Amino acid sequence: MNATTTLSYSYLIIGAGRVARHFAHYFQLLNLNFTTWDRNQSASEFQAKAAGATHILVAISDSALEVFYSEHLKNFDDKVLVHFSGALYFNGMIAAHPLMTFGTDLYDLKVYQHIHFALTGCDELREALPGLPNSFSSVFAFEKARYHALCVLGGNFTTLLIAKMLEGFAEMKIPVSAARPYVEKVIENTLANPDEAFTGPLARKDAVTVEKNLNALNNDPYQAIYKAFLETLWPEYPRK
């Protein structure tokens, strides 16, 4: 930790979940000055740590953010207040959403440094998170709901679909190692050329195979998901 960093800014990270843990680890790797607080600590500890911070980062659930701000933060006019929600924005706090999924295991420095931030409420990442070398984009407040919906579609839903595939493969004794090259190449091709990466029976309008797929998913709730994609991508599909 160098003296310049210590004197210019210091962080308080609020929360005990994955995002808080990952940011604390990232800041430790960068040798930034920070403390942490969560609801298992006392109110007096919060006040003391907040008083010593220039930037207060709130890594709690979206549903609790505005209440926490109103009850604990709105009078901190001398602090930079930041939350990490992708969907939420309100006056008084900067939104700096990290475009990353945070697992149970901590990452190495290079992974953290490649996280892109979506900013609302400030123009530069250094205003919200000084000391971080990460890239960023600006997202208008009215765009945040759609931005986050796209994150869910591309990230969370993809995770669910891959997990479903792996679950079914496991029942057939097909190992994860066999699925990995397929999934990795799907993602690689999509990032390289999204307009040309789509393959399979919906892409080639193969009604016979689609019908077999749907029949194989009878009594499986994921049949409805298959049908939803079918209605979106091939609305003229010849239904019986």
Which key phrases capture this entry?
10 helices; alpha/beta; Rossmann fold; 240 residues; disordered N terminus; 7 strands; 48% helix; seven-stranded mixed β-sheet
Main beta sheet, described? 7 strands, mixed
CATH-scheme architecture of the domain at 3-139: 3-Layer(aba) Sandwich
Low-confidence stretches: 1-6
Shape: elongated
Number of strands: 7
Counting helices, strands and paired strands, the structural category is alpha/beta
Kindly report the average pLDDT value. 94
Encode the helix/strand succession as letters.
HEHEHEHEEHEHEHHHH
How much helix, percentage-wise, in residues? 40-55%
The CATH superfamily title of the domain at 3-139: NAD(P)-binding Rossmann-like Domain
How are the secondary structure elements laid out?
Elements: H1 3-8, E1 11-14, H2 18-29, E2 34-37, H3 43-51, E3 55-58, H4 62-73, E4 80-83, E5 94-99, H5 109-113, E6 116-120, H6 125-128, E7 136-138, H7 144-171, H8 176-192, H9 207-216, H10 222-233
Parallel strand pairs: 1-2, 1-3, 3-4, 4-5, 6-7
Antiparallel strand pairs: 5-6
